[in-house]
Amino acid sequence: MMSRVRNPLVVSCVYLWVGFVCAISFMEAWLKFQAPGVTLSVGLGIGRLVFKALNQIEWVFAIVIVLNFVIRRIRRPNNKMIFLVIPLIILTIQTLELLPTLDARAIRVINGEFSEPSSTHTVYIILEAVKVISLLIFGSTLFLHPRLKPVSAEPQH
Fold this sequence. Notes:
The chain is mainly α. The protein is 68% helix and 3% strand. A two-stranded antiparallel ribbon has the order 1-2. The longest helix has 32 residues, at 40-71. It starts with a strand and ends in a 13-residue tail after the last strand.
């Protein structure tokens, strides 16, 4: 039995969004520092550019998803929509608070200034994990699963 997709554009955006976040936040972010010759300053400079681009791409995915629901006039939100609302809230917090704070900190380090320890990076990583999990759950709700036919209690001849 095959599942059908309720909204292919939204499904594509959701899973591309997950892929971008996983590839950048959970792989590129720390892996670049393993490359020969990449200093802390160079790595932070690359990270600033990459995370700014990621944030912009995430907003494109988020806007496409929300606009799709608005255009299709989906008026009756269900309880599964919370798994879309959570990533939207997290993305807003990251854009308005966490990324500017991390960016300012990176600039200080690049300029050779001492930067006090901060939990902002840990909060960012935790929110990335919550965002990915929420998007995966939301994405799974977009598939229409065929109903199983009830098994007859009568023997077949």
